Amino acid sequence: MNPRWISAAAGLFPLTARAADGPAVLGIPVDFILFAATLLGVALFHHHTLRVALTGLIVISLYKIGFTGFHEGTGLAGWLAHMQHEWVVLSNLLGLLLGFALLARQFEDSGVPHALPRFLPDGWKGAFVLLVMVFVLSSFLDNIAAALIGGTVAAHVFRRRVHIGYLAAIVAASNAGGAGSVVGDTTTTMMWIDGVNPLSVLPAYVAAASALLIFGLIAARQQQAYQPIVLTERGGPVDWVRVGIVAWILLAAIATNVTVNTRFPEVSDAFPFLGAAVWVAILLAVPLRKPEWSLLPDALKGSVFLLSLVVCASMMPVEKLPDASWQTAFGLGFISSVFDNIPLTALALAQGGYDWGVLAYAVGFGGSMIWFGSSAGVALSNLFPEARSVGAWLKAGWHVALGYVIGFFFMLAVVGWHPHMPHKDMTAVPPAAAVAPAH
């Protein structure tokens, strides 16, 4: 999940207010070349990802300020207006990443992960069942929380020897689980708020479930060969107060998500309600059990890394997508592994003509193919720093890309491609609304 709130109906990236066209090399805008260089640097220098991301952010910002400008204006004033346009997105994401890092430790200290081995099957089946649990949790929880809970349990049942391929599978399961639910992922919530029928994204589970079978079974076998599940550990008693705190924080996030974006969508982009709700819940629970505040510095580094990439992606000139088709949706899945899926979803909503179930699966699951392709992957890498290698992720987690492809075409074969007519008449939007920032 990349929590950016929300509606593309008013023109998240306004088509009538383009920034000036900048220089291009072989027809490719320099903006994209700089962003690609940043992503390449992250892939090659995975021990210095934060420095690379911040350097890329500074270079791209200076280039945009000096040459092309922004949708919101030109020069430094345009950059400041753009950042004002993005502050709710960034604040929500920062609040979730830091808050759920503390939540994961509360869950770990509750003793539940120590007790789970007695309920999981032995062998590779236990590893697969854990992925299914993450998939189900993510259908109604934030996918960051689902991935962190899954990672926390995995650290215990596999004695902290978790295969990178299995870490990739945990992220994939968390993203796949939210693909067919309008409360399971930010992209599907965007569709819901924008007027797409919640039932229209439900068929995404046909693809997501079949993908889970592919990458889940392979990853479970990987993990079994690397470090079998340990079923002899019984641990101490469960701290039900900490369990209650975890439930309280998650319920606060769910309730805020549903309430703000269904009953008060007109103000959903004015304040980081979701991130604030998580932190209010954390602070209210402090008298019961003190959080592990020492986790925040490392979690902050990982969060700043992801936020840097999100800001870089938001400055790219992606005003127009190819015509809506299943081929375009298929390609968007791969693009979302390196490019923020929120603006892609926003543009697709403004464009219309997609099968929303197919699109929900593609943009929701696609980010799993690279560790920084989704916020769930970045959050999990805070628990397992060894995952911060694009090469290792692609080599060990190859089954995630395989699952994406098989799931996509299985869905086309079973459900088919049923493009929806644009669910809103964009020509009826008043000109002032059509160019107003929607964040």
From TrEMBL:
<feature type="transmembrane region" description="Helical">
    <location>
        <begin position="324"/>
        <end position="346"/>
    </location>
</feature>
<feature type="transmembrane region" description="Helical">
    <location>
        <begin position="87"/>
        <end position="107"/>
    </location>
</feature>
<protein>
    <submittedName>
        <fullName>Sodium/proton antiporter (NhaD family)</fullName>
    </submittedName>
</protein>
<keyword id="KW-1133">Transmembrane helix</keyword>
<feature type="transmembrane region" description="Helical">
    <location>
        <begin position="300"/>
        <end position="318"/>
    </location>
</feature>
<feature type="transmembrane region" description="Helical">
    <location>
        <begin position="270"/>
        <end position="288"/>
    </location>
</feature>
<keyword id="KW-0472">Membrane</keyword>
<feature type="transmembrane region" description="Helical">
    <location>
        <begin position="202"/>
        <end position="220"/>
    </location>
</feature>
<keyword id="KW-0812">Transmembrane</keyword>
<feature type="transmembrane region" description="Helical">
    <location>
        <begin position="396"/>
        <end position="417"/>
    </location>
</feature>
<feature type="transmembrane region" description="Helical">
    <location>
        <begin position="29"/>
        <end position="45"/>
    </location>
</feature>
<dbReference type="GO" id="GO:0006814">
    <property type="term" value="P:sodium ion transport"/>
</dbReference>
<feature type="transmembrane region" description="Helical">
    <location>
        <begin position="162"/>
        <end position="182"/>
    </location>
</feature>
<feature type="transmembrane region" description="Helical">
    <location>
        <begin position="358"/>
        <end position="384"/>
    </location>
</feature>
<dbReference type="GO" id="GO:0015297">
    <property type="term" value="F:antiporter activity"/>
</dbReference>
<feature type="transmembrane region" description="Helical">
    <location>
        <begin position="127"/>
        <end position="150"/>
    </location>
</feature>
<feature type="transmembrane region" description="Helical">
    <location>
        <begin position="240"/>
        <end position="258"/>
    </location>
</feature>
<dbReference type="InterPro" id="IPR045016">
    <property type="entry name" value="NhaD-like"/>
</dbReference>
